Amino acid sequence: MRIVVKIGTSTLAHATGLLNIRRVEGLCKVLSDIKNAGHEVILVSSGAIGMGVGKLGLRERPRDIPSKQAAAAVGQCELMYVYDKLFSERHHTVAQLLITGDDIENEIRHRNFRNTLGRLLQLGALPILNENDTVATEELGIGDNDTLAAIVAKSVGADLLILLSDIEGLYTADPHSDPNAKLLPLITEVDETIRSLAGVSASGQGTGGMVTKLKAAEICLSCGCDMVIASGQEPNNLYDILDGKAIGTKFTRRHL
Fold it and tell me: Lowest mean pLDDT: which of 17-21, 77-81, 118-122, 246-250?
């Protein structure tokens, strides 16, 4: 299988913005094992700005664009250092790709992006992607890594996209405030009823939320790629997802 895994900031970092070492080590271990099993793995990782905030000792996530870009520049170095170290220890070579909206919208640049990504997979590398937050602005950016991950999955013909988040999946109501909220295990179409269930991220760290995840699901369903929203707190969930077990919320047309 060709698998795209997106890791959100709330999965990578503590509320302080500093790295959640135990969780990241667990994720890299499981992803390495999945790759050892013969699957192709592409990682879309948030966290550059959040890690930059922690590294710079800022009290909160910056609001102005120059400060966000500065934090991203510092944090991206730290993020890739950690990934390179942890995956290298398990004999996997990582590659970094930082992209903007123009790399997707411009036909020539998008083709070059697909070709590079495809060749990296052929060479056995583990590509790690993030939006280029050091230069991207609202006009140039993709906006969130849920959408980026779905675009990547569509571009490379992935079989499965897994969004690891701070929530277990899509619920009938906000599980943080409604004890009667129920997890929806299987969705075959993103219609207005499903869209009405979308809320916002409770973590305050990332740029995504359920709205962006449903947008990603629509992109995946349009190209025949399955998608799963699952909690990133337990890395071993990835094994169960690949084994076809009911983890989180799965979006698929294969049951039609």
Answer: 17-21
Gap between the Cα atoms of 252 and 256, Å rounded: 9
d(CA 114, CA 110) in angstroms, rounded, equals 6
Residues 171-192 have pLDDT tens digits of 988 887 888 889 999 999 998 8
Dihedral of the CA atoms 35, 41, 46, 50 (nearest 10)? 20
- Residue 73 and residue 79: Cα distance in Å, rounded? 10
- Which residue shows structure tokens 């269930």? 197
pTM: 0.89
SS (H, E, C) 126-160: EEEEEECCCCCCCCCCCCCHHHHHHHHHHHCCCCE
Which residue reads 């992935």 in tokens?
A: 158
Candidates 220, 68, 59; CA nearest to 131 is 68
